[in-house]
Amino acid sequence: MPIASSEVVWVDQPKKLSFWESTFLTSLLEGLRITGSHVTDNKTVTQQYPEVKPELPLHYRGVHRLNRDEEGRVKCVACMMCATACPARCIEIVAAPAPKDDPLWAGRDKFPASFVIDELKCIYCGMCEEACPCDAIELTHIYDLTGQSRQEMLFDKEKLLEVYDKTKDCALDPARTHRGRLSGCSEFASLPTVGPATSIHPEDRASHAASPGKIDRCAQQPAQEAVL
């Protein structure tokens, strides 16, 4: 395919080197100047770890934790969103129905009977944290993770809750509960009617639908203001 003349960019030929430039002495002196400036710079850039602890940024993603709700229960509702979003497949959840005769689990349908994260397989991308609809799983600033065996690096539910108990009052890891009890999505009693994303032929039966995109089965609670 020929290239249009308007897409052709012409550049000037490099100018001819002078005598001193052709000897490369100027480039050599410039390199020595830069090297000398680094040698005489006494500013320390190396941290003496572990004697000196690093100052990590606030968005650092370290060891996971499972948050508790206001009643001290595990906040996770076993929706599997984190395990689905995890690109490393390091989260394994076994969901179980919440005991109906136990007042502690009133208002809950499911809870994680088992919740295990393989900290060695995790790539700490934060996708689980983003996918969680109820802020149940979060990454903390803890970075010095060690273990004597691979089994020790499998963090189960009790171990993840223990991390929450240790970090909940830390200024670097505040409990972020801005998404609500079960996230803003669960607060919807009804969704606004939306049109189809693509055009539909007038003879198609879908074009005659009264309210395409409407979801009716969410209205199990009194109408509330939608949170967008």
What attributes does this structure have?
228 residues; alpha+beta; three-stranded antiparallel sheet; 6 helices; 19% helix
Give your account of this protein's structure.
The longest helix is centred in the first third of the chain and has 15 residues, at 25-39. The protein contains 6 helices and 5 strands; from the N terminus they run ααβαββαββαα. 19% of the residues lie in helices and 11% in strands. With 228 residues, the chain is α+β, with helices and mostly antiparallel strands. The strands form 2 sheets. Strands 2-3-5 form a 3-stranded antiparallel sheet.
Short synopsis of the structure:
This protein is α+β, with helices and mostly antiparallel strands and 228 residues long. The chain has helices spanning 19-22, 25-39, 81-85, 127-131, 157-167, 183-186, and strands at residues 64-66, 91-97, 110-118, 137-139, 154-155. The chain is built from six helices and five strands, in the order H-H-E-H-E-E-H-E-E-H-H.
- Outline the biggest β-sheet: 3 strands, antiparallel
Rg for CA atoms: 29 Å
Shape: flat
Task: Tell me roughly what share of residues is in helical segments.
Answer: 10-25%
The SSE string, one letter per element, is HHEHEEHEEHH
Given as residue ranges, the uncertain stretches (5+ residues, pLDDT < 50) are 180-188, 211-228
SS class: alpha+beta
What is the residue-mean pLDDT, rounded to a whole number?
81
Number of helices: 6
Termini separation: 49 Å
Number of strands: 5
Strand content: 5-15%
Biggest sheet: strands side by side, in what order?
A: 2-3-5
